[in-house]
Design brief:
The strands form 4 sheets. Strands 8-7-6-9-10-11-12 form a 7-stranded parallel beta sheet, sandwiched between helices. The chain has a 6-stranded mixed beta sheet with strand order 14-13-15-16-17-18, with helices on one face. The longest helix has 21 residues. Helix 14 packs across helix 15. It is 32% helix and 24% strand. The chain is α/β, with parallel strands linked by helices. It comes from Planococcus maritimus.
């Protein structure tokens, strides 16, 4: 049977080469279709390949009765209605790796151009000036490059910087000291990186946690005369804080390829001679454009041949009889993963998932992937999903194991997740209770019963009289109201825990008083 592929945005012949040379695939390339024309043509095609021009709307998807896979030749999928695709059992794939090399090269180009003031000197020459004294730069050799975000692109930048004989110190939520040693870089917290770096480059996704990660406080930590590069996402650097830091002399230079608003509307930063900029060109090379097209083409070929894809960004269809039984546990599994990520505060090295009761007789792979999604998305963002979560975990060196037991352990079904980090092992168990929904019923070896939702505080303490009252008083002083409290202990006067549900997010400064109590061992704020 022939598999029909419609390509509605321009892709190079090199990019569609895998499709051209695969058996049983017919390609139709029509790149000038109007919205109406595309809607009329789409029915009958098994695959649709697009770039950013074609808007794959719900209306279009509903007209595509045979569509099985949508390929986006690029990273972002904002022009595709993922919810509609998922509802109709259509897999959406993208090309997250295709622009890695181009982005890394652009970062290095910006780094070197900034260090040697090349754009400024060129502009001076164009004005008819021969001014050498104003554009004295600095060498990269023996300088320290701080890399915040050490994924694919961050590692590629580090490899190139080593070629300039720079020292590298990196931070990433999934980077450990052992991994850093193997990669030949130093490892530290964000603050560690900012304190020692002569140059700082950021390569994180833009998340709630990374929004304005480089802010006024971060600049205060840095060396005087530091230089900054952002070729990742606009918004990671607070542009107002950057402006002030450059004006004060704290920052000697900045190189920006991305901005908080694009197209750029506030050009105030570019009035500063210390700042150089480009209009989001990190992936704008012929090779990158070809590479992303090749990646999605290969995924379509893999789907046709084997029914599998590498870079799915949504959940493929699941047999209805399985979905009906496991779907109620999806949210619980995800929340357990997120809960343990916040609780450990460290990179997972191994994850064991135990299924007890009736779940042991079912295909629980989707639940494991959903749990991993909750675990990984805290640091990697929404691009982590049920389908690619296992692949990403493997990439990060996280070993994932499933275990099954028909023993009920007191519950009809029980999901227990055990996370091993360098510091030790933490675990949590959850179930669904009739009429009460998802509950976490055990943390480590302590019996609890709480809803995995909202704002939580996990407190480890010594079991002494008056501790609970002092905790309540100190939280009240910070205008934090306790909604529920669970207390568990190993033995009288021994180790104990409190699991509090509170009415609002607790900032670190709100918890300083608690941490100073003699009986308190640790306080962890968790937002689910």
């Amino acid at each position: 049977m022939t598999f029909h592929v419609l390509i509605s945005d321009p892709l190079s012949e090199e990019g569609v080469y895998p499709l051209r040379h695969a058996d049983g695939i017919n390609i139709v390339m029509e790149t000038n279709l109007s919205k109406t024309e595309l809607a009329e043509r789409i029915d009958g095609f098994d695959a649709l390949l697009v770039r950013s021009q074609t808007q794959v709307t719900r209306e279009l998807i509903e007209k595509a009765s045979n569509l099985k896979i949508i390929g986006r030749a690029g990273v972002g999928v904002d022009n595709i209605d993922l919810a509609a695709a998922t509802e109709h059992g259509i897999i959406v794939v993208n090309a997250p790796d295709g622009n890695t090399n181009s982005a890394a090269e652009h970062t290095m180009a910006m780094l070197m151009g900034m260090a040697r003031k090349i754009p400024q000197a060129y502009n001076s020459l164009k004005l008819g000036k021969w001014d050498r004294k104003s554009y004295v730069g600095v060498e990269l050799k023996n300088k320290t490059l701080g890399v915040v975000g050490f994924g694919r692109i961050g590692q590629e930048v580090a490899a190139r910087a080593k070629g300039q004989r720079m020292n590298i110190i990196a931070y990433d939520p999934f980077l450990t000291a052992e991994k850093a040693e193997k990669l030949g870089v130093d490892f530290g917290s964000v603050e560690d990186v900012l304190k020692v770096a002569d140059f700082v480059t950021v390569h994180t996704p833009l998340l709630k946690e990374t929004k304005h990660l480089i802010n006024a406080e971060a600049f205060n930590v840095m060396k005087d005369g530091v230089q900054i590069i952002n070729c990742a996402r606009g918004g990671i650097i607070d542009e107002n804080a950057l402006y002030d830091a450059v004006k004060s002399g704290k920052v000697a230079g900045a190189a920006l390829d991305v901005f908080e608003q694009e197209p750029m509307v506030d050009f105030r930063l570019l009035e500063l001679p210390e700042i150089i900029a480009t209009p989001h060109l990190g992936a704008s090379t012929f090779e990158a454009q070809e590479s992303v097209a090749v990646d999605v083409s290969q995924d379509v070929v893999s789907f046709v041949k084997y029914g599998t894809v590498r870079n799915s960004v949504n959940l493929p269809s699941v047999p209805k009889e399985i979905m009906k039984r496991i779907e109620p546990y999806f949210d619980l599994a995800e929340r357990i993963g997120t809960f343990l990520t916040d609780l450990t505060g460290e990179t997972a090295e191994e994850v064991n998932v135990y299924y007890s009761g009736e779940l042991a007789n079912l295909e629980v792979g989707p639940l494991t992937r959903n749990m991993l999604k909750g675990m990984l998305k805290r640091h990697l963002g929404k691009h982590v999903n049920d389908v690619n979560a296992m692949y990403i975990a493997n990439q990060k060196g996280i070993h994932v194991n499933e275990h099954k037991s028909t023993e009920s352990r007191g519950f009809t079904n029980l999901i227990t997740v055990e996370v091993k980090t360098q510091s030790g092992t933490r675990k949590a168990s959850g179930t669904l209770l009739n009429g009460q929904g998802a509950r976490i019923v055990k943390v480590d070896d302590y019996i609890v019963d709480f809803l995995p939702n909202g704002h939580l505080l996990f407190i480890r303490h010594n079991d002494r009289p008056g501790v609970i009252g002092r905790v309540g008083t100190l939280l009240g002083a910070e205008d934090i109201n306790i909604a529920t409290m669970q207390v568990g202990r190993s033995n009288v006067g021994g180790d104990a825990i409190m699991m509090l549900s509170i009415d609002k997010h607790a900032d670190p400064e709100d918890l300083e008083g608690l941490k100073k109590l003699e009986e308190i061992e640790s306080v962890t704020a968790i937002d689910l």
